Amino acid sequence: MALAASSAQAADIFWTAGTATFNNPANWGGTIPTGSDNAIVNNGGTVLISAGDPAWTVFDIRAGQGTGDGAYIQDGSTVTLNSWFRLAIDVGNTGTYTIKSGILNAAPDFHVGEHGTGILNIWGGTINHLGSAAMIVGDRGSSTSTIGIVNHTNGTLNCDSELWVGQGGIFGDSQSGTYNLSGSGVIILNNWLAVGRANANGVFNMTNGTLIKGGGGNIVLGGLSGNGTINQFGGTIINTNTGSWLGENAGGSGVWNISGGTANLGVVLLSNGGSGSGDGTINLSGTGLLIATEIRSSGIG
After folding, report:
1. Is the pLDDT of residue 299 over 80?
2. Given this model, what pLDDT does residue 272 score?
3. Structural domain boundaries, residue 177
4. How far apart are alpha carbons 147 and 234 in whole angstroms?
5. Per-residue pLDDT tens for 30-48?
6. What is the rounded distance in angstroms from the CA atom of residue 200 to the CA atom of residue 22?
7. Helix or strand or coil: residue 205?
8. What does the pLDDT read at residue 4?
9. Displacement of CA 19 from its chain's centroid (Å)
10. Nearest to 91 by CA among 110, 120, 65, 112
11. Quick one: what percent of the chain has pLDDT higher than 90?
12. pLDDT > 70 fraction of the chain, expressed in percent and rounded
């Protein structure tokens, strides 16, 4: 809550141009946002960050807020946030951030879809998510219309904290969070991966690429009575240091479909929960390969 208060106290500077460079004060109504300012796009415009631009530090990055949609396209340079990354803040808004090359340093909170439709395209470059706050794709805690989508085809996501794909809401409601990993995309994750958490529906689709899960925490599909699915058609997922849980607590449903690629895992627990277990399922088919030190069930799975 202290972070939210700090974000609110920063100066709001709004984008006033169409599609143009960030590095022109006129495009921001006279002042380029700095490290104590929230850079907000809500006029349907697109902020361009290019290879020849200087490094840019702001407080918040926001796209899709209040009266309209907004977008950023980063193709080079370095963008550093002192506070939140926020896409689709309000109901009915669409906020988009596309990184093609360059570096995005974000800490602490990282939200793709708060109340509207948030889209993060990782087509290259590097995103470093630092700090302890979770990276959330589709946060439906206070809205039934939230949609978060990540399309990751190239480049690297380094995440020091947790990655939640689908968070909050009503179990069985429409899908909240979707992460699509393909091509040569790489995720290096140092804490929990939760797909479908706290009643939400979440889906992780993987046709290629690599997910390396290190650090603490587990992979959880359908955690805290959520509904989570991994559809693995190719690529490699590695989580040998911690567990992989499918269906956590009563009402949770976790499904891992492996029809291609490799899942190299430690202990796999189907249907986990001390206060009533969920439903965990692994479907192995095609050329899919599952390597695990142990697979066991404590409930329905």
Report:
1. no
2. 79
3. 2-297
4. 25
5. 999 999 999 999 999 999 9
6. 36
7. strand
8. 43
9. 25
10. 65
11. 83
12. 93
- As given in the structure block, the two tokens for residue 121 are 């395209």
Which amino acid belongs to residue 132? S
What total number of domains does the chain contain?
1
| Cα distances (Å, whole numbers) of residue 142 to 113, 201, 221 | 12, 15, 21
Global model pTM greater than 0.85:
yes
Two tokens, residue 35: 């490290």
Task: Please tell me the distance from the alpha carbon of residue 180 to that of residue 161, in angstroms, as a whole number.
Answer: 19
CA separation (Å) from 63 to 39, 118, 242? 8, 9, 36
d(CA 253, CA 259): 20
Q: Write b or e for each residue in 230-240: b if 16 or more Cβ atoms lie within 10 A of its Cβ, otherwise e.
A: bbbbbbbbbbe
The answer to whether the CB of 215 falls within 8 A of the CB of 191 is: yes
For 259-276, give one letter per residue: b (16+ CB within 10 A) or e.
Answer: ebbbbebbbbbbbbbeee
* Buried/exposed 14-27: b ≥16 CB within 10 Å, e otherwise: bbebeeeebbeeeb
Mean pLDDT of the chain: 92
Look up residue 86 and give its two tokens.
Answer: 């926020």
Torsion of CA 213, 218, 220, 224, to 10 degrees: -150
Q: Cα dist. 133→166, 187, 248 in Å?
A: 15, 17, 22
pLDDT of 217: 95
pLDDT at 75 over 60: yes
Please state, in angstroms and rounded to a whole number, the distance separating the CA atoms of residues 178 and 95: 15
